Amino acid sequence: MTADAFHAPRQRTLMSMVMSYMASGGSLIMSSAAQLLTFAILARSLGVNEFSVFVAVTAVCNIAVHLCGLGGMECLVRRVARDPSMYPLMLGHNIILTTVSGVALVLLGVALLPFFFSLSPDPSLNLLAMTLMLITNIIFVRVIVLTEQIFIGHSNFVSANMTVVGFAVARTIAATLACLAFGVSTVAEWAIWQFACHVLVAAFCIRALAKLGRPRYGIVREELPLGMYFSIPFILRAIRQNADLLTLSLVTTAEIVASYSVARRILESSYLSVEALNRLMYPGSARAAANGLHKAMDRIRKVLFAATGISLAAATTVFLLAPLLPYLFGHEYLTLVSFVRKLCWVVVPLGMWSIAVEALGAAGYHAARASVMGLGSILGAALAAWATWYAPPMGTVVSFYVIEIAMVAVAWAVFLRYAKKDEARNAAGAALT
After folding, report:
1. Which has fewest Cβ within 10 Å: 158, 187, 292, 397?
2. Angle between helices 297-321 and 347-362 (to 10 degrees)
């Protein structure tokens, strides 16, 4: 065999991975751009008071949506990536968990949130609008995200990317029609448009999944604790992500709070370049780590190198483009550019530690993954709140870097520990045989 013949398959594999990443990353970037445009349209059209209520209710839903389904989405991707014949059972498992938990969360929200947030002065309309907001942002969002993950579990990244982009574009179209064409200016009015948009997208998702086969209903009991381990860190992280915003609202001006919240949204959008890599690599990492985390060590090392380069490029791009943001969100956001430029580099350590925790998840070490992310979120929330209270707003920015850099050290220390344990276990097993 010639050298060219030997290297050709590897070159084709690398090119295939690069093209898949570009498609995956492109879809998430397009999705992020559409979400930012939707965010800007709503911010301008609803006004400060209505938009602040919308953001608050949406923040509650963002926490609840991680509870909806009880983490069953991850096990579907992991189990189906390893054994496609598991799909009917894992789909049925997810449908049951999503339905039961989603209904419970909506009922709880309907009972509690109207006491804290008013979407309409009419009590009946307020209850209706709140119900629509909760169903939309908890149940329908979970169904749509589950569709994307199902396609990823089948390594059908084209359909997964189409789901992401289609969902984002649909919301942008809905916001454009509602606010710019029909003059929607209240959250109660927007709740109806948002609900209709999500119903249509969810219907398309269900139709797209029909060709993959019918579900087989049942609970996979061994996956229940793993699912909770998977979802709890995201819930705690959502709390962590709101601790600084809540504290800022108590100690500084509305303009700083608004500009900081937009900057945070842009930071989350820039992280999507790394998330695109994680979602592409996760099924393969699950297969590589099936016989031990150490078996996937070389793969994870390469993913870390790629993620660091990608996150640096994303941060640089955001830094350079920051002066253009007031033209999109409005010139009343006086500190927006400053916040964006100070926060954009956080994506680098964030991307680095995410590779380690995703690898732990792919190997099935959800307890360890949950411990790293959960404790990091709890301690991070406390640090962010204290630093924000003590020295706003610079204390908020500094705490962000301290938290994420500490997460890099802890996440990789835990990853290496479990990789060594797997290697020692395999070596002991080989010695016995």
Report:
1. 158
2. 150
pTM summary value: 0.72
In this predicted model, which residue has the larger pLDDT, 74 or 49? 74
Q: At which residue do the structure tokens 């309907």 appear?
A: 110
Whose tokens are 């699912």? That residue is: 227
Q: By the 8 A CB rule, do 287 and 82 touch? A: yes
Asked if 274 contacts 353 with a C-beta cutoff of 8 angstroms, the reply is no
- DSSP code per residue over 154-179: TT-HHHHHHHHHHHHHHHHHHHIIII
Taking only the tens place, the pLDDT of each residue in 228-273 is: 777 777 778 777 877 787 777 778 776 777 778 778 888 887 887 7
* Residues near 118 by beta carbon (within 8 Å), at least 6 away in sequence: 53, 126
* C-alpha span between 349 and 319 (Å, rounded): 16
HSE value, Cβ hemisphere, 13 Å, CA-based, for 345: 8
Cα atoms found within 13 Å of the Cα of residue 254, Cβ hemisphere only: 5
Q: Is the pLDDT of residue 417 over 60?
A: yes
Per-domain boundaries in the chain: 21-220, 222-427
Cα–Cα distance, 309 to 240 (Å, whole number) = 26
The token pair that represents 234 in the structure block: 């995201």
Q: Alpha-carbon distance 90 to 75, whole Å? A: 8
Using DSSP's 3-state secondary structure scheme, residue 133 falls into: helix
Q: How far apart are CA 146 and CA 163, in angstroms?
A: 10
Q: Going by C-beta distance under 8 Å and a sequence separation of 6 or more, which residues neighbour residue 141? A: 61, 65, 198
Residue type at position 133: M
* pLDDT, average across residues 297-318: 91
Q: pLDDT grade, residue 335 (50/70/90)?
A: confident
14 pLDDT band (50/70/90 cuts)? very low
CA distance 82 to 202: 27
For residue 129, what are the contacts with CB-CB under 8 A and spacing of at least 6? 119, 120, 187, 188, 191, 192
Which residues, in sequence order, are CB contacts of 70 under 8 Å at separation 6+? 97, 101, 224, 227, 228, 231
- Residue count (the chain): 433
Alpha helix ranges (H) inside 252-365: 254-270, 272-288, 297-321, 325-329, 336-343, 347-362
Q: How far is CA 73 from the centre of its chain?
A: 13
